[in-house]
Amino acid sequence: MRPYDEALAQLLNDVGSVATASNATESVSLLDAVSRVLAEDICSPNNVPPKDNSAMDGYALRLNEANEQGQWQVVATRLAGDASALTVGPGEAVRIMTGAEVPDGADTVIMQEEIIRDGDSISLASEQGVSAHKVAENIRPVGNDIKEGRVIVAKGTRIDASHLGLIASVGINTVSVYRRPVVAVISTGDELIEPGQPLPAGSIYNSNRYFLLPMLEKLGCEIIDYGTLKDDQALFERVFKEASEKADFVITTGGVSVGDADYVKPVLDALGNIDFWKVAIKPGKPFACGRLSKDDTQKAGYLLGLPGNPVSAIVTFMLLARPAIQQFSGQAAEPLAFLPGRVTQDVRKRPGRMDFQRAHYVMGEDGRLKVTPFNSQSSGVLSSIAESNCFMVLDREQGSLEAGAKVKILPFREWL
Ligand SMILES: Nc1nc2c(c(=O)[nH]1)N[C@H]1C(S)=C(S)[C@@H](COP(=O)(O)OP(=O)(O)OC[C@H]3O[C@@H](n4cnc5c(N)ncnc54)[C@H](O)[C@@H]3O)O[C@H]1N2
Ligand code: MOO
């Protein structure tokens, strides 16, 4: 059994990345770019905001040159979108709206709640007069958000809604992204039935397919869904081969253990090579992987054989398949971000496997995170994932723990 870190390092080394391949990029319009990985640094061609503008509805004036009476004459009105030439002289003010360009000469915008207006004459409402205000207040300076030429989103970033907004804010509507990884998904097992069908004796509903497809979607993958295969070695061989010729990754669930109908490994061995089998993690130990071709020069899909138990399948997807697909997609490495916490109850654990217990974490009254493991840690209990918000991660050589012990928290809901 490989320790988790070694298994992941080997997997990442074996799968490579489209970022090093030629012809692996395409140009897409902004709204089609969400969930894709950027193949270029996005540099801003201009300043945001492009000119000094007002943060408030109020009056633009020269606070530095306030007269003794602290009074100004309103000489014009400035709306957002109006860029006509306009200069404010000493003793003059311009009625200005939020977002409008600050007229030349003005050094400050006073918000209207802090102004007393009498006809076209304004004065400061505060008894402290000018000293209640600061020069430049309520002015958003040119380039305050983004300076011209700055990299606003780096190559290797998986684009989310905030990146789309930021890229739009500098006026760019097309970006270069890496091609999508093609992923074939295969459920295996004689006992599996699709939801919506009556359940014959001895059968169970296929749940793995229903969390894998949306998680792959979220990773920007192009999916080939092979549904469910009966446990038949010749059938596996034929379908795995076909899938590997079309897909970058072939993800299977089930059939990787030591049972009489566990054909995934023998088929991987026959078509290609097993990179490794078994990782020292709980759940998910029998994870298997390798390339589905013996010919190194041929492009062929890489098999990620997830264990059949639903929790083992989702955990190995999150911890092994997901980083492999992210790296292959050209995404910059994203190491697991643990949070420090304390466990609320005694925990039993035997040394030997790194344990990813499903758990719920909250902020305690002392401001520290406290984490409570789900009451069943069985790898068949999928509600342990649906009702948890993190893994409580216990190192491989760790033994049992007492309530109050320090543990690592790994939030996972954003991956789902
Ligand atoms: N003698 C041993 N037996 C087992 C070992 C072992 O080391 N020695 N390891 C156990 C562990 S740990 C796991 S995990 C499982 C993995 O088994 P397989 O990958 O071969 O999976 P299957 O036997 O095909 O299925 C296991 C379990 O999961 C259910 N299943 C499968 N696919 C789905 C699906 N798509 N949706 C819902 N449920 C699914 C299946 O019905 C079984 O109950 O092996 C242990 N055994
Ligand atoms: O690894 Mo199995 O996934 O312990 O149930």
UniProtKB/TrEMBL annotation:
It comes from the Bacteria. GO terms for cellular component: cytosol. Keywords: Magnesium, Metal-binding, Molybdenum, Molybdenum cofactor biosynthesis, Transferase. Its EC number is 2.10.1.1. Pathway: Cofactor biosynthesis; molybdopterin biosynthesis. One of its GO terms (biological process) is Mo-molybdopterin cofactor biosynthetic process. Pfam families: MoCF_biosynth, MoeA_C, MoeA_N. InterPro entries: MoaB/Mog-like_dom_sf (IPR036425), MoaB/Mog_dom (IPR001453), MoeA-like (IPR038987), MoeA_C_domain_IV (IPR005111), MoeA_C_domain_IV_sf (IPR036688), MoeA_linker/N (IPR005110), MoeA_linker/N_sf (IPR036135). GO terms for molecular function: metal ion binding; molybdopterin molybdotransferase activity. The keyword Coiled coil does not apply. It is an enzyme of class 2 (transferase). Its cofactor is Mg(2+). Residues 184-327 form the MoaB/Mog domain. The keyword Signal does not apply. It catalyses: adenylyl-molybdopterin + molybdate = Mo-molybdopterin + AMP + H(+). Belongs to the MoeA family. Catalyzes the insertion of molybdate into adenylated molybdopterin with the concomitant release of AMP. NCBIfam families: Glp_gephyrin (NF045515), molyb_syn (TIGR00177). This is Molybdopterin molybdenumtransferase. The lineage of its organism: Bacteria, Pseudomonadati, Pseudomonadota, Gammaproteobacteria, Oceanospirillales.
